[in-house]
Amino acid sequence: MNTMVYALVAGLSFVLAWWLRGSRLKAHHERALAEKNAMLDILRADSAASLAQLEHALTEAITERDKSSRYFLKITEFEQERDRIQVLYTRHAIGHGNAQQLMMNTIETLVRQLQAKGVRAQIPKVLHVVREEYQANYEVPARAAAEAIAKAQGAAPPAAETP
């Protein structure tokens, strides 16, 4: 009978040891699983935060791209307006110079007609000075600018009009 008790005690000890070992393994496994889940939660939170930051950065980049597109569009519009005004200015300056030349030719013709009839007529010097100043300061630069614009656009430069 002692043998049986010893065998029973040994068996119970073995089962108890096995149970304790299993419960320790189970506790260890649960701790490892909990740590793994905690790490996954941290990674999910980090990836969610990173994703939010990435979305924010992308939104800012798109906003800046749109803003720069609008700026460049405005700059292009200003440049086109500048070019249009430059063309209008050069046309006006050349046209005004042509009108002044026509006026000077007409005055000279009238003076010659008066002189042919015996009237002492002379063109005032101020008219020549004004004409030369306008021609030097406005008409010649405008013609040069018109020629440069025509060359850039591949068109024929404006012809000098003389009445």
According to DSSP, the number of beta strands is 0
Largest sheet: none
Q: Give unreliable regions as ranges.
A: none
| Average pLDDT taken over every residue | 81
Element-level helix/strand string? HH
Q: First CA to last CA: what distance?
A: 148 Å
Number of contiguous helices: 2
Q: By helix and strand content, what is the structural category?
A: mainly alpha
Percent range for helical residues? over 70%
Number of domains: 1
Rg over alpha carbons: 49 Å
Question: Strand-residue fraction?
Answer: under 5%
The shape is rod-shaped
Short key terms for the protein model shown above:
single chain; 163 residues; mainly alpha; 2 helices; 0% strand
Structural account:
With 163 residues, the chain is an all-alpha fold. The protein has one domain. Helices cover 88% and strands 0% of the residues. It has helices spanning 2-116, 125-153. Helix 1 (2-116) packs antiparallel against helix 2.
